[in-house]
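Justification of resources, computational component.

The compute hours requested in this renewal are based largely on the per-chain cost of generating structure records like the one below. Each record pairs the submitted sequence with a full structure-token output. That output is archived, and it is also reused by downstream analysis tasks.
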Amino acid sequence: MNLRTKHRGRAASAVAAVLAAVLAAATACTSSSGPAPHPNPSDPIADTPKPGVLRVLAGSELQDIQPVLDEARKATGVTVQLAFTGTLDGADTVSTGRADGKYDATWFPSNQYLRLDPAGRSKVLSETPVMVSPVAVGVRSSVLGDLGWGDGSKVTWAQVGDAAAAGKLSYGMSDPTRSNSGFSALVAVASAFSGAGAALTEADVRKAAPQLKQFFTGQKLTSGSSGWLAQAYGRAEPGKVGALVNYESVLLSLNRTLPAEQRLTVVRPVDGVVSADYPLSLLSSAQQGERDSFQRLTGYLLKPDVQKRISELTLRRPVTAGASPAAGLPSDRRRELPFPGTKAVADGLLAAYQNELRRPSRTVYVLDTSGSMDGQRLDSLKTALGRLTGADDTRGVSRFRDREEVTLISFASQVKWTRTHVVPASGATPGPAAELASINGDVQSLKAEGGTALYDSLEQAYRVVEGQQKAAGDDRFTSIVLMTDGESNEGATDADFKRFHDGLPAAEQSIPVFPIKFGEAAVAQLQGIADLSGGKLFDGGGSLDGVFEEIRGYQ
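The structure output for this chain reads:
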């Protein structure tokens, strides 16, 4: 019985005490009484341990394992509560001690990045690989034929890179600074192009840089998550995207839902891959009860019949000898390509990807500075955007990138002003610092007053992008971020905006808008904008800083 009523007087308290005593006596004397109900896996993560509950910080792609965890709960009595994060962000959470006491275990696709940090290594007491999936290239079957690659079984990373550089292969890949599949793909091509025979070094990265830059000219889609990347591939206009770089399991699972003309042939380059082995890892801060739960859970997950079930559900490969993989899943393994030898090399590779190797970005921020934003809300916006101009970002995760074109649009009853900046390359004179400071100056100048003409301002953002594209004649990753704390109450309506959007050229219609819900923003309006543009709605209610940083993975 959960007695939550407070301050109802002494009589009520006495009755509650008597009832509690009676219930306790009944439980002690009645052998037929069942066990206490299990906690719900979807309950919020508790700040303190609970008996029979394992609190796990996990990679977001592990949402597909929930049916197995439900079965594990019945078999072992262990309830697994998953909190999802990006792998590299999760590694930082562990290394900095922010996971201590809050989580009992981690379950990332790989611990390779975490192991590069001595502080991170010391936080892990033990780890148990549960399943395996290599990073591969899923090529649209019609494109595979045009490339002359046969069934794809003999393709090398060099061939993939040459096809991308020649404009014959366009692909989508998740952001390496956010997603482990993107990070693993980046490491794989860097290792393959450099010919590294041992741990990847800074010299290897420099050697591979020219080929890497050519390889990334073929990247037409970027994303902070594998799930959104798959959706964007399905929405892309025919011929724009011919392939996806992702885990073998994600590509095979995607084929289950794609129409025949969009299905992918999974190419695992013969010169090697980087694989995810999904280690369920016990944190050294976990208490004894949670350590026992961890042992029961891992023992269950490694049973041959459970491994078969995992493989059939997720299309990942079993790790237990003798366990049967899902039908049609290749049983052979490719050589594992070498990983960076130090965290400095890994972070240097990530920073090079963001600022030198990938196609540059064009980002438009449409910022609500109506009267309702006055005070703390506007201060939060200034702080969050100001952080994107900081230079203390070793992986290039959050700050505006070198070569990025950043436009700020301040609006209320109408557009107040529009200001555009281009961040120079690090080797240029002057370098990025002065332009980043100028962006921050514009951010800090924002003032709140007026109504909310949301749709008029969003239409203006599309017109700005159109002008920029025509003037530059380039092909940047382009996106619009819309931040508002209210409902559009002036100017164009949602129906007007839909007519405007439907009249745009196909290339502009495909520009995603990422709305941020803040304060009392109208969720239906923002979700409609995200759905119409192929973007994604984010909730800034918890941390506006965190949301702006998360969106960077989609830009």
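The mean pLDDT is 88. The first strand starts at residue 53 and ends at 59.
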